[in-house]
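Form 7-S
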Amino acid sequence: MNGQNLSPKIARALHEFGDAAPPPPSVEDVRSHQPSAPRRRIAVSLAAAALVAAGVVGTVAVTGRDVAAPASERAVEVHHSRYRVSWTADLACETPIDNPATFDTVIIDTWSDREGRRWRNQATYPDGSTHDLILQGSAIYPTAQFERGRRLDSNLGCVGPNGEPFILVAGPGLFFSLTLAPELGPDERPFVRLYDDWGTLVDAHAADSLGRPSQQWEQRTSGTAGYGSVADHPVIQVTTWWVDAVDATTVTERTYINNVQTLGTAMQTQTLLFDETITAADDLFATNGYQALGPTPRPDAPSGGPDTTGSATGSPFDNGAALIVYVKPGATAEQVDLIRNAILQASIVAETELRYLDVPASIVEAQRIYADDPATWALFDESTIPTMFQFFPADRSTFDSQEWRSELLALPNVFQVTAPTDDQSDRIPVVLGESPESVPAPSTPGPDTSVAAECVGDDLDIAHEPTDWRQPENESWFRNGCLVRIDVITDQPGPDHCGWGTARVVIFGSPLGARFVGGPTNQYVRDPANVLGQRFDVGFDGDIDLPPIATNTGYYTDTEELWTVPGEDEFIYLVLYGRVERWPSGESPVCD
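Output:
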């Protein structure tokens, strides 16, 4: 794929707790076991910091203070895992980052006392030095944490013309675990997204680099990045997980590839070497000689239901907002940052004029607005609530709420843009239904219907598309930088309540580009695990050579291009970075 074929949508590394992307790790003394489409006005710089694994935040070292915890002879059952983390890069830039501590491999041991809610990480560097981290109370929001030793950094990347560093890949950061699920308490799971929340199943019968039978999951994002505020380099990022084929929980390996056009490619590989359950002395978690760090508070989600005593219904615009951008439920912190950076970089409003309501705040807002509508309120929880950006322009007389709608809607994970004058603007959107047929007429505004002057064509006439079809779970398709009508290409996952969430179905008219309502349709299915039970896995190929006579249709998502073979309806070809998938045609079953 060349620069002219890259999607205009904007991407950023998804680095967060859990099985998301380069993780949070580190710790000391290892035991002997171990396609650029037409220019759009919104562009986002992929900050170097985004390429470093996000981890425990808000910690403050208590300088010069040792915290002593008395040792104990008590023995405890501990889960012990050892990982190898390595990273490489093939850089094309003139000035690579000069890091005097450069190394390319670290060994990390993790000990988990799940009953006592204690964790210890230990990183051992090639020079023999170590760094330890002990967490208490929680592996992701510890109530106390302690550090010993020096954490070494090793970054691979480039230096810009004004001395700005651009990190393509870095060594592991704070607390590290490839498999967080067993470490979580029941009240912590809503705050963490795992491999199957981020990725798509590519191969149900794969093997990791050590030959262990695995399921292979993958996530791909694309966009632009650059030095400082200039985002002029196309980027494709790929995260791949290998998950134990038996327990479908243990991540045995994860790779993260960051390809930045003209700068090069970097990769981090995290491999589970072994894990075991051992009996260890309680003083494995003693904090003698450690430095205390501040806790990481967990955001509190509101409890209970709404006030049903008849309080007045409010509106998201009660605080004077001039525009609200609704973000798809489940968007990560990094994806939210991407949207924020896009808004600010386009100078739609200043940073002080933009307010973001995260999941807990959005739930509180929904509870206020639907106070007299408990049935609607009951539809919201941490996984279904859309979060929101609220705009408060200083000069409302010159602010045009219609000007940016199309470009805001085209940003990844944005599914609705609402102004105070829109119909039903006083309602937070509720995502209902699994498919267009099951979605009732919306009680909220549909997708943006303002069309840029260059978006001309029957397939791009979104102003007259069926407004009750487009839902957050639908994949957006584009042509020439313009959003394609939902009744020209519909792309949706299988319904989760039937266990079909890993499948994906694309429907379009015949010929491609025609609306399929009332006319012939073509349907293609991606189901490598055969969850639909129709043997679509037989015709699917996750890594195939593109037929020489295949042609680019001009339609694309943020990570894929649609190619077909003229005169052939049996398969379509999705061209991704580094490989091609073949999807078979066929009718997907109906979920009862």
